[in-house]
């Protein structure tokens, strides 16, 4: 069998109603599979105002808003309507992309029919409680995730560092890599635009520390703010440029009154914004890959990031940027200060980052996911799948 023989039922908690790195990766994968002749059916919550048009056929799943985070929705059941649709589609592999109630039910549905199941890991859900004062829940969340992933034939992670963490957490005996690619037409160093920077009130000779991403606390906004405060105390010349939007924007604006908030950007405008920075600061520990880090690298920026999953697989310490112990405000400030004050060091690291980003292409990346599908289908046909949990 090749890709044209695949019939993939993909379940996701967010396929296109809010734009983020995870669902954009899923949409790119679906578009790639359709070009290769595969059949794909996507089951996910929908809204009347989606962030972008979905790739492939999207079937709306019953859902409700997340309490306190109404922009996200929880798909809560595999309804009789969805079951009829699945039966008519007759998939030969099931892909679950989030540990929500719908995906739990999809796994049970697939196991009852002896269908192979692949799970993709997009974020470190077990770390989220610490950002809401509920760190004591992390072991329980990790246990729930372990049960979820062990009911699948294989799981795929976006970076080797994340894959290794999943192995250490005993999430699965079969952990592969489905990394992320880069759109080289959008993210290029030559999109740098000092005129655009000046229109935002940023002088051309002031080094710009950038933040790119959804403005939510789990992205490390508190660490980012504290680090910028320390840089200011040290008298290091800089400006902060924030690209993105989200529910914590007001908090972030109040914390960083001298920062420039450019709001949500996409396509060539996003490429221009990233390329017009001088360095990226990514203190998050929830990333499993770090799309924004790769995009910054492709634009020729050094990155100062937390030494955590995702970033560890992208940033070469002392070569393309700096990896700092999570939460180490002083060390973050040291690294950013060095890049702010030494333009030559910044340029060397940026050039190395751009060269390293060249090896990430979307077609090669998505073929790895297709290869995983084909492998688990083949293993199921030949009866060689090793179940890591007997739970039905």
TrEMBL record:
SUPFAM superfamilies: UDP-Glycosyltransferase/glycogen phosphorylase (SSF53756). Residues 21-185 form the Glycosyltransferase subfamily 4-like N-terminal domain. This is Glycosyltransferase involved in cell wall biosynthesis. Keywords: Transferase. GO terms for molecular function: glycosyltransferase activity. The lineage of its organism: Bacteria, Pseudomonadati, Pseudomonadota, Alphaproteobacteria, Sphingomonadales. InterPro entries: Glyco_trans_4-like_N, Glycosyltransferase_grp1. CDD domains: GT4-like (cd03814). The keyword Transferase applies.
